[in-house]
Amino acid sequence: MAKDARPEIPDDLLQLQRAAEVARRAATARAYSSEAWRPWLDAAEAVQRAVTEHAAATAGVSRYELEMAVKRAAREADEAS
Fold first, then answer.
1. Burial class (CB in 10 A: 0-12, 13-18, 19+), 14
2. Cβ(63)–Cβ(10) below 8 Å
3. pLDDT digits 0-9 by tens, 67-81
4. 1 falls in which pLDDT band (50, 70, 90)?
5. Contact (Cβ atoms closer than 8 angstroms) between residue 17 and residue 74
6. Is 81:21 a contact under the CB 8 Å cutoff?
7. Tell me, what DSSP letter sits at residue 9?
8. Can you tell me whether residue 34 is helix, strand or coil?
9. Distance in angstroms (rounded) separating the CA atoms of residues 23 and 33
């Protein structure tokens, strides 16, 4: 993959990442407790699983590059809103 080329980002991956970010902000807005952080950890795990599955199913797509592209796209979408 060319250095400037971004992998195709399916909407479901973008939505999962955005949900994980919302959960992270909610978890870190208050004192730590495993109950408060569980939604964030579950959401982050769902993102990792979906990214890994998508990269494995898509020839030539690096899981790492896809993950970074998903995070970047989610951040850009949040900044644009």
1. middle
2. no
3. 999 999 999 888 887
4. very low
5. yes
6. no
7. -
8. helix
9. 14
Tokens of 79: 């900044």
pLDDT score of 2 more than 80: no
- Residue 31 φ/ψ, nearest 5 degrees: -60, 150
b/e map of 31-70 (b: 16 or more CB within 10 Å)?
eeeeeebebbeebbeebeebbeebbeeeeebebeebbebb
> What is the model's pTM?
0.86
CA neighbor of 44 nearest in space, from 62, 26, 56, 65: 26
Question: Which amino acid is located at 20 in the chain?
Answer: A
- CB-CB contact of 37 with 48 (8 Å): no
